[in-house]
Amino acid sequence: MPELPDIEDYRAALRDRLVGNVVERLRITSFTLLSTFDPPADALHGQVVTDIRRLGKRIVFCFADVDPDPLYAVLHLMIAGRLRWLDHGAKVPGRIGLAALDVATPGGEPVGSLILTEAGTKKRARLAVVREDGLADHDRGGLEPLEIDRDAFAAAVTATNRTLKRGLTDPRVLSGIGNAYSDEILHAAKLSPVARTGQLDEDELTRLYEATVDLLTRWSATLRAETGDGFPTNVTAFRDDFATHGKFGEPCPVCDTPVARIRYADKETNYCPRCQTEGRLLKDRSLSRILKDDWPATVDEAESD
User: What are the phi and psi torsion angles at 89 (to 5°)?
Assistant: First the structure.
């Protein structure tokens, strides 16, 4: 799922192409995409895009010139939704295409088409067309991690006692952090993903805050530099320069210990046993249940097998 740095990369590219221009037509080809019916989607036709915002992991297209009640289109890409910028009037791909937004200048000159795609059979991406009072329905309430100080961050994370992994990724706590960047943050902070938020000391909370700000700021800048004047084409949760996420079995860049993982349902957490859990291997709910006493307790045991 695209997270804060990815959404900010999309947002910058979309602002360059859309703000000040007109939605000529919205072509929806998947009946699952639209999650609202009032206002209708075609209410966007002919409207000027005035801003592109981020609301957590959602992209908000603003049409604030609509009088008297502004319109907004709220797009949640979910796990596999992606955006493409193509020539004006480009065809929506048949198997993975969901919609196209045809854009023109106020004078009617073609600008381009924003194409929404989603890989896989489960179509989860959603688009909502709402008015001002409907925006709140899409705001999960989490604080923006790059807009708060250390104390506000610590207060939010420790408000409830839960695993640190969940505390970072809960959109009601912090906005825009998901599975990938939480793994990277926890590795940088040298903290276990299953540590309890209510048991963190002041030094650990400071390390967590600083790692969060550093990782999100650095990756946001990196992605923007890679994209430049182009449009984001490599939006992925798996990057070569990541330390742990998606690196199961590969050496930790700090200590060379093989990266370990725990899995639950369709989610996976990657971590370094030496850097984050004092050498202990965390129990995977499914695999450890099968192996029982044969499940190694430490990385040293695993490496001696």
Answer: 85, 10
pTM across the whole model:
0.90
Cα dist. 196→211, 273, 295 in Å? 17, 17, 23
Which tens digits make up the pLDDT trace of 267-286? 889 999 999 999 999 976 55
Residue recorded with tokens 């602002």? 15
User: Which residues are CB-neighbours of 30 under 8 A, at least 6 positions away?
Assistant: 97, 98, 99, 118, 123
Helix (H) or strand (E) holding 75: strand 71-76
What is the bridge-based pairing of β-strands 81-86 and 71-76? unpaired
Distance of CA 91 to the CA centre of its chain: 27
Sheet of strand 58-63, all strands in order from the earlier edge strand to the far edge: 51-55, 58-63, 71-76, 126-131
The answer to whether 273 and 257 are in contact (CB under 8 A) is yes
Assign residue 230 a region: left if phi > 0, alpha if psi is -120 to 50, beta otherwise? beta
Listing from the earlier edge strand, what are the strands of the sheet with 22-28? 22-28, 97-104, 110-118, 81-86
Rg (CA), the chain: 22
Q: What is the C-alpha separation between 113 and 26, in angstroms, rounded?
A: 10
Q: Which residues, other chains included, contact 120 with Cβ-Cβ below 8 Å and sequence gap of 6+?
A: 79, 80
| 91-146 pLDDT per residue, tens | 999 899 999 999 999 999 999 999 999 998 889 999 999 998 999 999 999 999 99
Dihedral, 14, 82, 241, 248 alpha carbons, nearest 10: 160
Torsion sign over Cα 231, 4, 34, 138? negative
